[in-house]
Design a protein that fits this description.
two-stranded antiparallel ribbon; 12 helices; extended; 2 strands
Length: about 260
């Protein structure tokens, strides 16, 4: 399970508490031993089908659990401090290092081997990240990680701008036609915020539901709204001469 799915279990436990239902009572309702319930409610490999099964006995469903899981997760996530934001923006490889460790689950040894780094470089990376509050060094390259799994940046901060630029570059590498591409559509700011919120919630729900789905693959999603300027295919209208006519005739003849 990913972090989101782990928080789905947290949402299940919180719902149990809010409903003022004990494990013993739930055990009676669904005919599952108390010991099994406690184990499954903390089991990171519990399937969506089981979560849905227990949700039905708690008078809720997967969508509501997903919404609660997202709220719980947001409470636990701390934004990157302004100082660390500036450091990461200036030294983005530091961000990549801690991201590999915490979000992707790489070990220090994996990173050292993959990038052929010297032990001294690894020590410097870890010392810098310790100074920034992300790890606690135990012995040389052995560290204890801060449990933070996601990194939230302030909008328009240096790191946010760098991420957006790199994200756009990554998107442009894939020669794929946008699924939706519409020009000069009239929308209010409120309608845009509503669409963004609905899409975000739906994507989070799909992501949670697909944790055990072998047909689901990781995707990057980019949605943007920009001023509705008329789309022109050239920067200007240049001066032309008879060469343009000859070129048109030649291209027509080739057909």
């Amino acid at each position: 399970m990913t972090v989101s799915a782990q928080y789905l279990l947290a949402a299940l436990r919180e719902t149990l508490k809010v409903r003022n239902i004990s494990y013993a009572q739930l055990s009676e309702y669904c005919s599952v031993p108390v010991s099994s319930l406690k184990r499954q409610f903390h089991n990171p490999s519990l399937g969506i089908d089981k979560i849905t099964f227990y949700a039905s006995y708690l008078d809720t469903d997967l969508v509501k659990l997903s919404e609660l899981a997202n709220r719980i997760q947001q409470r636990d996530i701390k934004a990157i401090s302004p100082n660390n934001n500036a450091i990461f923006a200036k030294h983005p490889y530091l961000y990549d290092f801690i991201y590999l460790l915490t979000s992707l689950g790489w070990s220090v040894e994996d990173i050292q081997t993959h990038f052929t780094l010297s032990e001294q470089s690894i020590i410097h990376y870890l010392r810098a990240l310790e100074m920034m509050g992300y790890v606690e060094t135990i012995e040389k390259t052995r560290v204890k990680l801060n449990p933070q799994k996601r990194f939230i940046t302030e909008e328009n901060s240096p790191l946010d701008k760098l991420f957006v630029a790199r994200f756009k570059t990554s998107q442009d590498r894939h020669q794929q036609r946008p699924a939706i591409c519409m020009a000069r559509i009239k929308l209010t700011d409120e309608q845009i915020r509503k669409m963004e919120g609905q899409l975000y919630e739906q994507l989070v729900n799909f992501h949670t539901q697909n944790q055990q789905n072998p047909d689901a693959t990781l995707k990057n999603v980019m949605l943007s709204f920009v001023p509705g300027e008329a789309i022109r295919l050239s920067d200007t209208l240049p001066e032309v001469d008879g060469e343009l006519l000859r070129e048109v005739l030649r291209l027509q003849a080739e057909k």
